[in-house]
Design brief:
Protein name: YtkA-like domain-containing protein
Shape: elongated
Distance between the termini: 87 Å
CATH superfamily of the largest domain: Macroglobulin (MG2) domain
Strand content: over 45%
Order of helices and strands: HEEEEEEEEEEEEEEEEEEEE
Number of helices: 1
CATH topology of the largest domain: Immunoglobulin-like
Structural class: mainly beta
Largest sheet: 5 strands, antiparallel
Helix content: under 10%
Strand order of the largest sheet: 3-4-5-9-8
CATH architecture of the largest domain: Sandwich
Keywords: Signal
């Protein structure tokens, strides 16, 4: 009898210890369970679901981000086989990021979200929409500052910008022209440019290296994509793929040309509607 009583006491101590440890990792919010101390937690607008955001790096950064989502329903059960959508929005700028991340369900209410592309520093919101059957609800997570803000000189678009598609490089080494695959260029549409590079005598410049940089001087950010040369289709004619202008307004595209003739840069200005 004494032996059984001592065993009961020992088991009770062990169970109490485990429960204390478990409760230290999980917390209850309006009937929903939060699993990790360092995670972000929110209940959806209509209290249909809870969403817990786990960030492996502990924060969001400018560039590509990966996060995990733990989703429970209003009975605090794992939400499986749901349609999950994650949108990145910049409330101060009044626009979102038009590159959809990849979402993979891992089971047990866990969803991995990969390649959330944030193109510039600033104030972001991640809007998580959960749709299961006839139920749809969303939670908003606020990130007041992603990345380091740098001081940009406020550059207003000058009157009468030159939108010519043929220009001479800054040092006068090259004569460059471009033709977009889509004309007129459409917002939020990935497309290619055909770029023709000649010397000042009109001869084709072959085997050149071309580096591309796009910028919105009034907003202080660049392109959401990284255009690259994919081929030289004929002597001096290069296909640059991956252009995407995600906002209307004044854009500047710089092409740096590197060849045995020298290194020089040409600038093209665009105004997109």
């Amino acid at each position: 009898m004494k032996k059984d009583f001592l065993l009961f006491i020992l088991v009770s101590i062990v169970l109490f210890s485990c429960a204390t440890t478990y409760q230290g990792k999980e917390h209850t919010h309006a009937g929903f369970t939060k699993h990790y101390e360092e995670s972000l937690f929110n209940v959806t607008r209509n209290s249909l679901f809870s969403v817990e955001v786990v960030m492996p790096e502990g924060h969001l950064k400018v560039g590509k981000n990966n996060i995990d989502l733990i989703v429970h329903d209003k009975s605090d059960r794992d939400v499986v086989r749901a349609n999950i959508r994650v949108d990145a929005y910049m409330p101060d700028m009044g626009h979102g990021i038009d590159i959809e991340p990849v979402i993979v369900e891992k089971g047990g209410g866990l969803y991995q979200v990969r390649d959330i592309s944030l193109t510039m520093p600033g104030h972001y919101q991640l809007i998580v929409t959960v749709q299961r059957g006839s139920e749809t609800d969303r939670a908003v997570f606020d990130f007041p500052q992603v990345g380091e803000m740098t001081m940009h000189k406020h550059i207003l678009m000058p009157e009468g910008i030159d939108t010519s598609r043929t220009n001479t490089s800054e040092k006068g080494i090259y004569r460059i022209s471009y033709t977009p695959e889509i004309d007129p260029i459409r917002i939020n549409t990935i497309h290619s440019w055909k770029v023709k590079i000649q010397n000042t005598s009109g001869q084709a410049v072959t085997g050149a290296t071309v580096r591309i940089k796009g910028d919105m001087p009034e907003h202080g950010h660049g392109l959401p994509t990284e255009p690259v040369v994919v081929e030289e289709t004929e002597p001096g004619v290069y296909i640059i793929d991956g252009f995407k202008f995600h906002m209307p307004g004044w854009w500047v595209v710089n092409l740096e040309i590197i060849s045995p003739l020298g290194t020089d840069t040409v600038q093209f200005q665009l105004y997109l509607k």
